[in-house]
Amino acid sequence: MDKTATVATGKKENAKQRKAREKAERAAKSGTATPQAQAAKPVKEGALPKMPKLPGGKKFRKPKEQHPCACGCATPTTGKWAPGHDARANGWAIRIERELLTLKDVPENERAGAKLMLAERKEKGIKPGAPMRVVKGGVAKREEEAAAAASAEVVNG
């Protein structure tokens, strides 16, 4: 017999389907049908077989609760600040600390964020005008190097 055989319905079946059919026929003749063959429901002609279940146990995360941004813009966010809004408020806070401008000079829609950032910086003990984080090779490191070079010149001077 060839790789494809014609079934009673007139449709061709591939080798895998043929092997499965022959195995089921042998099991039915001997009377020792496998539990899978016994439980298998006849498939409608032209219908696809049921897909196996996905591996269980994987739970999906619940979406985080959203609330308005801390700066007062009412942008919904899952964190305290909307992306970039904390940096903008930090910029206003640094300018106010360095006395380049006053809180009245900050645009009205950004004052709430600037006030909050001033309070956060004061609470964290950050020096007025200093960057919020010291980045490796960043501003704070360059200032230390400049101070060390100046003191070295005084000593060598």
Summarize the structure in words:
With about 160 residues, this protein is mainly alpha-helical. It has a domain at about 65-130. The chain has helices at about 15-30, 35-40, 85-95, 110-125, 140-155; strands at about 5, 10-15, 65-70, 75. Helix 3 (about 85-95) crosses helix 4 (about 110-125). The radius of gyration is 37 Å and the shape is elongated. The relative contact order is 0.06.
Give average pLDDT, whole number: 77
Helicity range: 40-55%
**What is the CA-based Rg, rounded?**
37 Å
Number of strand segments: 4
- Major beta-sheet overview: 2 strands, antiparallel
Q: What fraction of residues sit in β-strands?
A: 5-15%
Helix and strand element order: EEHHEEHHH
Q: What is the distance, rounded to the nearest whole angstrom, between the alpha carbons of the first and last residues?
A: 103 Å
Q: What class do helices, strands and sheet pairing give?
A: mainly alpha
- pLDDT < 50 runs, ≥5 residues: 1-5
Count of DSSP H/I helices = 5
Shape type:
elongated
Oligomer: single chain
Order of strands, widest sheet: 1-2
Give a quick set of tags describing it.
157 residues, mainly alpha, two-stranded antiparallel ribbon, two-stranded antiparallel sheet, 4 strands, elongated, disordered N terminus
Give the topology, please.
Blueprint lengths: L4 E2 L5 E2 L1 H16 L4 H5 L27 E2 L7 E2 L7 H13 L13 H14 L14 H18 L1
Antiparallel strand pairs: 1-2, 3-4
Helix pairs in contact: 3-4
Quick synopsis:
By secondary structure, the protein is mainly alpha-helical. It is built from 5 helices and 4 strands, in the order ββααββααα. The strands form 2 sheets. It has a two-stranded antiparallel ribbon. A two-stranded antiparallel ribbon has the order 3-4.
